[in-house]
From TrEMBL:
It comes from Nonomuraea coxensis DSM 45129. CDD domains: ABC_RecN (cd03241). Belongs to the RecN family. Transmembrane segments: none annotated. Residues 351-378 form a coiled coil. NCBIfam families: recN. This is DNA repair protein RecN. May be involved in recombinational repair of damaged DNA. Keywords: ATP-binding, Coiled coil, DNA damage, DNA repair, Nucleotide-binding. PANTHER family: DNA REPAIR PROTEIN RECN (PTHR11059). Residues 8-524 form the RecF/RecN/SMC N-terminal domain. It comes from the Bacteria.
């Protein structure tokens, strides 16, 4: 399902007080008397899709002008996703866009119920609508659009070489960036390698081990307090087993006291099972205390004050602390230094391999340059063939649109550098008559001619450069008769693949429409008010008669109107 504009509401814009446009998916035409406000319909659509806000367009006496549009979009499709990405809502496949312009020139925009910058509407509209009018910037006048449209017009023949070129271009750019970094930062990389090498040599000289700093800290504590540790162990041992130099009778050590307690309980344990359990526990306690006393004796004998070893440990800790401060993370230990050394060695190997890497990248860059040159030449060849076909097709369309002497060409120029899409710059040009040189479209055609040129281009591009909605104003300026019929035919043809909205004063164009809207004006004192009405068949006959003969009920005009409607119906 392609997106389309379903309804537009306009308030306070130009002569339009209030109007509602209900649009069909196909060919919609807007007609009305001179001064009724037809052009304001195009202006309103332009505002809706991010056009320039001109406060002079606000209806006299009104505080602001507002335009609200309801679009039908595919739920989950690209447009819906873009709206949801900015926080807007698409409910039931309907998207609401609003725009207001105050008399002071302030402009506000809403998308899916969310306030957005006007530029967001412009960005969204780029893939939704193409407005062709004398005062509008044409979508297809953008160089990037012209090349993209020509590429789609070229068809399958361009797809494979363009895909191959795009892949080669991306790799070519990556290689170029890597070469640039390696060659322009050679001095910085050399300095970095020197610093890494110095750090690795310093760490290698010290040769730290994992957990070594913690072990040394514990050893330093033990050596610094050797006397106190030995004294404490000896005192505890004496308290548990007693001093063998003292008389046995005066001993009050733990083992002796436990022995007395055990002996007292053992004497009567047979009389009470509970007390027997206590006696067993006293025996266990005695064994345990004896083991502890033995460990204390061994520990006291092992502790010796060693000032020379203490000095060695302190020196080693100082060296390790210096490494940790320089190469470890905050609160790191010797393991952090070793981790830094591992990373530094890997980085140094990478830096020391730069020369070899530069040679490899240079070879790859040269090979890719040759490949890109060949692929770019193939793209140019396909584009030149497509450009010639396209120019002939548009020129043929212009002949039928009352511009028999005009000629459209596609000019391809080669840029000096490779681009994402090749080396071709594409520009549509027009020669107004055989002797005139082809000029850019904005310089080679007047406003009315430009709209016809863009119609011819859009008809030829139809299907190749898909845009859901086209808006044309002044597309029939300066033509009539057979040329007007041909314009109607081509607009109807374009409407087979897109929604088309046209403001016209020619009945031959209006007869081909699927939906006919008329802008009616009424006088309220000296103030003109306009509204928009959707016409049925009888209303179309009356409106076409008015456009043909200036009289709504002219029998000749009505007969001619019926004839035009019949011709258009048969052509469709």
């Amino acid at each position: 399902m392609r997106p389309r504009v379903e309804e537009v509401r306009i308030h306070g814009l130009g002569v339009i007080d209030e109007a509602v446009l209900e649009l069909s998916p196909g060919f919609n035409v807007v007609t009305g008397e001179t001064g009724a406000g037809k052009t304001m319909v195009v202006t309103g659509l332009g505002l809706l899709f991010g056009g320039r806000a001109d406060p002079s367009r606000i209806r006299p006496g009104a505080e602001r002008a507002s335009v609200e549009g309801t679009l039908v979009v595919e739920p989950g499709g690209r447009v819906a996703q873009q709206v949801e990405d900015i926080g807007g809502d698409v409910e039931g496949g309907e998207l609401i866009i609003s725009r207001t312009v105050s008399a002071e020139g302030r402009s506000r925009a809403w998308l899916g119920g969310r306030t957005v910058p006007v530029g967001t509407l412009t960005y969204l509209a780029d893939d939704l609508v193409a407005v062709h009018g004398q005062m509008d910037q044409q979508r297809l006048l953008q160089p990037a659009r012209q090349r993209a449209a020509l590429d789609r017009y070229a068809g399958d023949e361009l797809v494979k070489p363009l895909r191959a070129y795009t892949q080669a271009y991306k790799r070519h750019k990556q290689v170029a960036v890597q070469l640039e970094e390696l060659t322009t930062r050679a001095r910085e990389r050399t300095q970095e390698a020197d610093l890494l090498r110095f750090g690795l040599e310093e760490i290698e000289k010290v040769d730290p081990k994992p957990g070594e700093d913690a072990e040394l800290r514990e050893e330093e504590e033990r050596l610094s307090h050797a006397d106190a540790l030995r004294s404490a162990a000896t005192t505890a041992h004496t308290a548990l087993l007693g001093d063998p130099m003292e008389a046995a009778g005066g001993a009050h050590d733990v083992i002796s006291l436990l022995g007395e307690a055990r002996a007292a309980v053992e004497a009567v344990r047979d009389f009470d099972a509970q007390l027997a359990g206590v006696a067993d526990r006293l025996a266990e306690a005695g064994y345990l205390i004896s083991d502890v006393a033995t460990d204390l004796a061994s520990y006291a004998e092992s502790i010796e004050a060693d000032p020379s070893r203490l000095a060695v440990v302190q020196e080693r800790r100082s060296v390790l602390s210096g490494l940790i401060r320089k190469y470890g993370e905050p609160s790191a230990d010797s393991a952090g230094v070793l981790a830094w050394a591992q990373r530094a060695a890997a980085r140094l190997a990478e830096l020391e391999g730069d020369d070899e890497r530069i040679d490899e990248l240079t070879r790859e860059h040269d090979e890719l340059t040759v490949k890109l040159t060949d692929l770019a030449a193939e793209l140019t060849r396909v584009r030149e063939a497509a450009a010639e076909r396209f120019g002939l097709a548009v020129t043929e369309e212009l002949t039928a649109l009352a511009m028999p002497h005009a000629r459209v060409v596609v000019q391809l120029t080669r840029s000096a550098d490779f681009g994402p899409e090749g080396v071709d710059e594409v520009e549509l040009r027009m020669a107004a008559h055989p002797a005139a040189p082809p000029l850019p479209l904005t310089k080679g055609a007047s406003g009315g001619e430009l709209s016809r040129v863009m119609l011819a281009i859009e008809v030829v591009f139809a299907g190749a450069d898909p845009v859901p909605t086209f808006v044309f104003d002044e597309v029939d300026a300066g033509v009539g008769g057979k040329a007007a019929v041909e314009i109607g035919r081509r607009l109807a043809r374009l409407a087979r693949t897109a929604q088309v909205i046209v403001v016209t004063h020619l009945p031959q164009v209006a007869a081909f429409a699927d939906q006919h809207l008329v802008v009616e004006k009424a006088s309220d004192g000296s103030v003109v008010r306009s509204g928009v009405t959707t016409l049925d068949h009888e209303g179309r006959v009356r409106e076409l008669s008015r456009m043909l003969a200036g009289l709504e009920d002219s029998e000749l005009g009505r007969a001619h109107a019926e004839e035009l409607l019949g011709l258009a119906a048969a052509d469709r």
